[in-house]
Write a structure and sequence with these properties.
mainly alpha; 5 helices; 54% helix
Length: 175
């Protein structure tokens, strides 16, 4: 009967542990604030200024070292012909008809339509695949999502019931 047991929810356990830690820190802050308000300061010995006779040492100020010069930037040669050749290729006279109007480019249209339906690429495709596959274990759906899913199932059941009644009515009426 292991399937009857409820699986431990790791996120809820961690959230309750963090809530307990936050509560303990808040009580500690309140206690220290109350001590401050009452004037109870902890007795600390200051080591910044020693008690008694103070001896001053005069040392010359250190000469600041000059800031290191940044290295000269390294420029790489870029083949400009390759970059320009792609754009110039699209505007050859073969792409225009005798009236000077650009000819219809069917493969480019298919590419644009495909890009439109594909949508933009994600910044983190691994996270998207985890979320799509339900790979984040222990993460329960929100109440609103549960309600929407329940309403969809109820609407589907009502629709199928009405369709069944319609089929039965048509069958009985045709006899």
């Amino acid at each position: 009967m292991a399937w009857v047991k409820k699986k431990p929810d790791l996120l809820s356990d961690r959230a309750s542990a963090l809530t307990a830690e936050i509560a303990s820190l808040e009580t500690q802050i309140k206690r220290l604030d109350a001590q401050l308000q009452r004037g109870e300061h902890p007795r600390l010995r200051s080591t910044a200024v020693p008690h008694g006779v103070t001896i001053t040492h005069t040392t010359p100020a250190p000469v600041p070292r000059p800031a290191p010069r940044p290295p000269e930037p390294i420029f790489e040669e870029v083949d400009q012909d390759r970059l320009k050749a792609h754009h110039e290729n699209a505007n050859t006279p073969d792409h225009y008809n005798e009236l000077g109007v650009r000819k219809y480019d069917f493969p480019a249209l298919l590419q644009r339509v495909g890009d439109f339906f594909r949508g933009p690429t994600t910044m983190n495709p691994k996270l998207v695949s985890y979320l799509a596959a339900g790979g984040v274990q222990g993460l329960r759906p929100l109440r609103k999502e549960k309600r929407v899913a329940r309403n969809r199932v109820i609407a589907l059941a009502i629709f199928l019931f009405l369709m069944g009644l319609g089929v039965i009515y048509m069958f009985v009426r045709s006899r």
